[in-house]
Amino acid sequence: PxxxxxxxxxxxxxxxxxxxxxPVSCFAKCFKMSFYYxxxxxxxxxxxxxxxxxxxxxxxxxRLPGYRLAFNKRSHCTPGVAxxxxxxxxxGVVEGVLxxxxxxxxxxxxxxxxxxxxxxxxxxxxxxxxxGAKSAWIYVANPAYVEAGLLPESNYLNHLxxxxxxLSPQYLVMLQAQACRPAVQLLGDKGLLYNx
Length: 196
Known about the structure:
196 residues, alpha+beta, two-stranded antiparallel ribbon, disordered N terminus, single chain
């Protein structure tokens, strides 16, 4: 559905399925939602965000309680390779970077990079920041693409480590200790846009 007026928004407000189908810009117009994107994977690298055309006005540390980081999202092109995902964990916390997006419709571009809605779904969740709780868009791997026994490639893990300034020392140590597969580093803009 296309939300061209607040009356249309009211029609779909109570239906989570229809809400997901609304263009991102409709939330700004009719739901007054702040446009934050919580990155816990390779988009913690601000250079990757910029290369992908996601312009942001601010970036801050954020935490997603009740989840843990998992490298269990199967690569669609390289067997045995994992990308980041978040999975429910009662006492878990996922750390990452909360970006304030300048243009909410830029998320439609990110959907393409994340393979949404096929490989990842885009969900709205609450993250904790130094200035309080905020609603943010988060990508979660779809069950059909979740697989155990996978490892991230070293170049992919480096993108996560590029967000070190927004991570706690303990979380950074955990990422640095993560087992990974060696990979050929893609050079220049190609390496920022895509995973090898």
